[in-house]
Amino acid sequence: MASASPTVRTIKTYTVTPQPNPSAPRQIHLSAWDLSLLSVHYNQKGLLFAYPPDLSVEQIIQRLRSSLEDVLFHFYPASGRLKVVTCEGGGITCHVEVGCDGDGAELVHATADGIGIADVVAADGQDLPEFLKDLFPLNLAVNFDGCTNPLLVVQVTELIDGFFIGLAFNHAIIDGTSFWHFLNAWAEIARHKLAGKEVALSQLPVHDKWFIGSYGEPPIRLPYSSPAEAIVRFSPPPLRDRMFHFSSQSLAKLKARANQECDKGSISTFQALSALLWRCIIRARCLPIEQNTTCRFPIENRTRLQPPLSPNYFGNSLYFPGTTTTVGELLDNNLGWASWLVHEVISNHTDSAIRDLVHEYMQNSYIFNKFRNDIHSIMISSSPRFDMYSCDFGWGKALAVRSGIANKFDGKLMAYPGWEGEGSVDIEVCLSPECMSALERDEEFLAVVSPPIELEVLLGALSK
């Protein structure tokens, strides 16, 4: 990571409690997809904004608090708390549920001394600054000691010339699709209130949890007296963290190259880019040719199930499958060959494959605790398909999307849409310092990376 952190000071912390929702149940049972992520750090993503000319900081905070209260009315699990219930009989088991008692989310108002928009964005070629971790709330991990942690904490941090809205959301409650659905809904309500319009959501969340048939009714029992028995805390080694930009034109050429080399014609842009990153990072690591290496990435279940789930299904609905080969095979073959490996994993993630995985889980329930360094592999999370830059709270488009330190390790990559749209992509890459330096010299990688959008262009577009 980059330089030492400046001082980020908390000014005030608010508990934001929604009005009672008569349709909200008292508890929500977690699905297999939710439970498996109980050990994972909170999902941390945030948006950088320039100050609007007609609003003070106090007005911004007040409008965010008011609209957060409204959106939590609809997304009521976010204002609940996790509850652990120890089950009697049948051995040592417990289950975890969300208590929908409207305890509320937290909103933290903070200020960062001497930090401006340019510092957060970071110049081309520079690592992301270390102080980014302080622009997010500190609720990184689930704590089952009394289960008093809010499931959602928001931090709004004043900068010299802008502000940053950072969210920490319990990952057992939401995946990336639900995270950005929530944030867009919050922005939609804030935008309507700012314009004096009726507060209404165009996309309401669906809270009916999906459980596979033939296994009885929830709750799903975990084979522990408490989930804390399976929680693994992980501290990554020193990492470098960089953003790399890929223009739509560069990605179109990469996709065409992958399809030409594999002679299949069905390689997507994401598959080609994943294969490129996998090849270049593994080459940078200088691993033995006989070593196995894996590329993992999230695949959404909502549209692959039959019948499909609603795109507004609120919760987790994804898996992280991967494709494995040896280092020698990955580097001796071309990009098209590696892209086809990725393509096959995605194509094979069908309704029956998803149901088989859930059946497996039900026979041997567990809490996933393997987010840790694996220098032989990479994992790509998030997605350039998420609607990140439509989160307009009424003061214009965000200047950048950034993440906190949660769930980062050597070989963790995160994909975001490019600011300019049109199919461009930004990839956040976390690697050891030695591997990052080698990647920055890799000719195949450098031939595809594009110059980032200049900060002056971003600010100029907002002023029009």
Q: In short, what is this structure?
A:
The chain is α+β, with helices and mostly antiparallel strands and 464 residues long. The chain has twelve helices and 17 strands. It has a six-stranded mixed beta sheet. It has a six-stranded mixed beta sheet with strand order 9-17-16-14-10-13.
Walk me through this protein's architecture.
- The protein is α+β, with helices and mostly antiparallel strands and 464 residues long.
- 28% of the residues lie in helices and 22% in strands.
- Helix 3 links the parallel strand 6 (105-112) and strand 7.
- Helix 2 (57-74) packs across helix 4 and helix 6 packs across helix 8.
- The radius of gyration is 22 Å and the shape is globular.
- GO terms for molecular function: transferase activity.
The CATH class of the largest domain is identified as Alpha Beta
Instruction: Give the strand tally.
Output: 17
CATH topology of the largest domain: Chloramphenicol Acetyltransferase
CATH superfamily of the largest domain: Chloramphenicol acetyltransferase-like domain
Largest sheet: 6 strands, mixed
CATH architecture annotation name of the largest domain: 2-Layer Sandwich
InterPro entries: CAT-like_dom_sf (IPR023213), Sec_Metabolite_Acyltrans (IPR051283)
Pfam families: Transferase
Keywords: Transferase
GO molecular function, one term: transferase activity
